[in-house]
Design brief:
The complex is a heterodimer of chains A (74) and B (167). Chain A has 74 residues and is an all-alpha fold. Helix content of chain A is 70%, strand content 3%. Chain A has one domain (11-73). Chain A has three helices and one strand, in the order E-H-H-H. Chain A is elongated, with a radius of gyration of 16 Å. The relative contact order of chain A is 0.10. The mean pLDDT of chain A is 89. Chain B is mostly helical and 167 residues long. Chain B is globular and about 55 Å long. The model of chain B has no long low-confidence stretch (mean pLDDT 93). The chains are: A mainly alpha (74), B mainly alpha (167). Strand 1 of chain A pairs antiparallel with strand 1 of chain B.
């Protein structure tokens, strides 16, 4: 993944393009979140620490990511 | 609809929704959207969804590439380049849990497809019903994928209805 510097965002005159960008960014953020949580747990972070870093409770972090992290470990 | 036809219809619906869920998860999404229903419809053994796309000059195999291109182009519009073919997402590895859930738009497409299937002779859900219903969506990933493919959604809906035998 590569991010260009100071790229202009889709303008308000084209809300459809801007909303499509929002959808694509959500997908990308979901992937980044899942991979980062997996890495944090692999490094020994607790669910409380993961939750704190993401601004959610430990229980919410566990509920959202635990099965995915387990599956990724194989 | 007789009992045998009703059981066959239930089997088709289960195949469609299970496949849509798998498509969503391989796309990194917990809940299927219309684009995942479309991909699932083209994989149904009746073959009508694929034939509906072919009627408007689209190779059904290009649908997946077009969906990825929608996301890649959208990310490029905000200055983010992702590896080609991923659309920026990565597959979920965990098992799907709980009852089937989908986006409101996927629910709308599914419900309309089922309604169309009831006005078909013989009755029963086929892939082309899903294509016809999805072609009505004006916005979102599925609509943008059709645009990437150069498909006129009105023509596609007509082709899908003809393929499905909607009266």
């Amino acid at each position: 993944m590569r991010v260009a510097e100071m790229h202009p965002l889709p303008g308000p005159e084209d809300p459809e393009a801007a909303l499509a960008a929002v959808v694509a960014l959500r997908r990308l953020a979901g992937r980044l979140e899942s991979e980062a949580v997996g890495e944090a747990i692999a490094q020994g972070w607790t669910w409380a620490q993961v939750g704190e870093a993401l601004g959610i409770s430990a229980q919410a972090a566990h509920k959202k990511f635990a099965s995915e992290v387990r599956a990724r470990r194989g | 609809m007789g009992l045998v036809a009703a059981v066959r219809d239930m089997r088709t619906i289960k195949q469609l929704l299970t496949r849509a869920e798998a498509e969503a998860r391989s796309d990194g999404q917990e809940t299927p959207g219309p684009e995942h229903l479309l991909l699932a419809a083209t994989a149904l053994p009746d073959g009508t969804a694929a034939r509906a796309l072919e009627r408007v000059g689209v190779d059904p195999g290009r649908l997946r590439t077009a969906i990825e291109a929608v996301h890649e182009d959208a990310l490029a519009s905000v200055g983010i380049e992702v590896e080609h073919g991923s659309g920026g997402a990565a597959a979920l590895h965990g098992p799907a849990t709980g009852a089937f859930r989908s986006t409101p738009q996927a629910q709308q497409v599914f419900q309309e497809a089922v309604a169309l299937s009831k006005s078909t002779e013989p009755a029963g859900l086929r892939g082309a019903h899903v294509v016809a219903a999805a072609a009505r969506l004006e916005y979102g990933t599925a609509a943008r994928a059709f645009a990437v493919l150069g498909v006129d959604r009105g023509r596609l809906r007509e082709a899908a209805c003809a393929e499905a035998g909607v009266g």
